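This part of the workshop introduces the protein records we will be handling. A record pairs a protein's sequence with a compact description of its fold. Comparing a sequence with its tokens is the quickest way to learn the format. To make this concrete, we reproduce a full record directly below:
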Amino acid sequence: MKQLNVLLATASMLTAASAMAQSHSGTLPVIYVNSQVPTEDIKKGEYVDATYYLDNCGIAGIESIGDADNQVATEIKGRGNYTWTGFDKKPYKLKLAKKATLMGMDKNKHFALLAHADDNMGFMRNIAGFELSRRLGLPWTPMDKPVEFYLNGDYKGLYFVTQTIRIDETRVNITEQDDLATENVDGGWLVEIDNYDTDPHITLEEPTGYPIYFTFQSPEELSDPQLSYLTEQMTLLNNLIYNEDKNSTELFDHLDLDDAVRFYIVQEILDDTESYHGSCYLYKNTGDDKWHFGPVWDFGNAFQRGDKCQFVWENPTFNQTWIGEIYKYPAFQNRVKEIWKEFCQSGYAGLEDYLTDYADYISTAARSNYNRWNQYGNENVVSEKNNMISMIRKSVDWLGDRWGAKPGNNDPEPGVYELYLLGDDNGWNVGNASDYKFTYIGDNKYELKLDNLTFEKRYKIGTDNWDPIDLGAEEEGMTPELEKSFKLVHAGKNIEYTPGIDGHRMIVDLGNNTLLFTKQATGLDMTTATVDEVPEIYTITGQRVEDMDAHGIYILRYSDRTVKVAR
């Protein structure tokens, strides 16, 4: 107790001495940690004594804990692998002396203080990954809460207090198995597919020759029976996953299909190329024959390959352990499509609003963080949030083409947007683009007549500041062809000018994200008819009509040819 009192007094003096240097934003709660050793002596391997207090700064739903004169005992150590060694802004782990509802989360002793120094997408990667996990219905997903952090009086910037992955009634809710147990060793188990050959682990080899490291998180020390059981179980999964008979059902007698699918869809939406290479957790409860993927953790490699859509195991940055083989199972693919459809119907709605609200909430603190660490992160998280949403939209659209469903609210409401052709000819600026504004013509379609426009260079289609509409080509340099539907993608590349479009009109269909250059038509399109011949007129579905009063696509049948026109 005497040592703790001395530590409290010292910490209080350090905090008071640094008061003038505080540079937090005041828009988020602030956590102060004061350690018994200097900051540079805090290591990754072992905890050191410290104290902390939390000032809620008036934020609703967050309870202050202690104050500068009444600090609470805790322990602190470094955490992470590359994030610990590769950055000056470092992540930490707290072990509170007494359980607390820290930042409004379930009462516990164990929390991480994540720095996200490697996240140049406005701190959005983990936020998006965790929220997608919740929306896809995985049994438990860590919560993270943004704070500003002082360590030993030094402002460390914007951090995220995060629930660590561990066996607990409020986290991974399975029966905890004793270390070095010799009986009842079938569960519970919490293991991690890791990419470091350093932690206590077992090593297997995929048929491809790639080693898989299984770090055992709980139990932390294994008896011979435990070691044998875990080795046998992981070997069994490895063999079944690579079974040549992909119509076999045996794999999913030992691997929970639904959790595997939900975990996978999260990784695929965010193109997380490290998802099955490291920080990939598996757990198994006692009495349960099946292993379960989850919880999700660490989306630091989300969207690191840019905006080119591909499956996570295609040309990956890291080895994608197992998932490429699991996906070959028809049972897995069928369940992916079923759960994906459910997600599109109800899970996606509100995701973009959630990310927008989160970005707005942390934006001021992010600028303070940027002043402290301008080599990490972003000053303007709102802009990066827009980038994240565009990437997610494009990914979801691409996956929807393959899995047969798309979110209903991803189709913009008809007629609500001021849509422009923006490009080299008008400086990519809505202020110069009054003549390049589309007109809404119904059925989620917009029209731009090209009669008198200077229009001969690169362009895209979007709303002001590209939010929320930002449509371009799938690849740089793609050129639409006359009278042929051209696929548009969110946050796409620049579209190249199509020669010979004078007298045509552009029709953008936001329901299907397509662009069509078609001849203008008022009543009959007599530019294609002979003077003395009136064609038969049919709708696109083949119904004979007398005229073209309604907007749409029509087939004009002449004696010597058939012409398709749009009105």
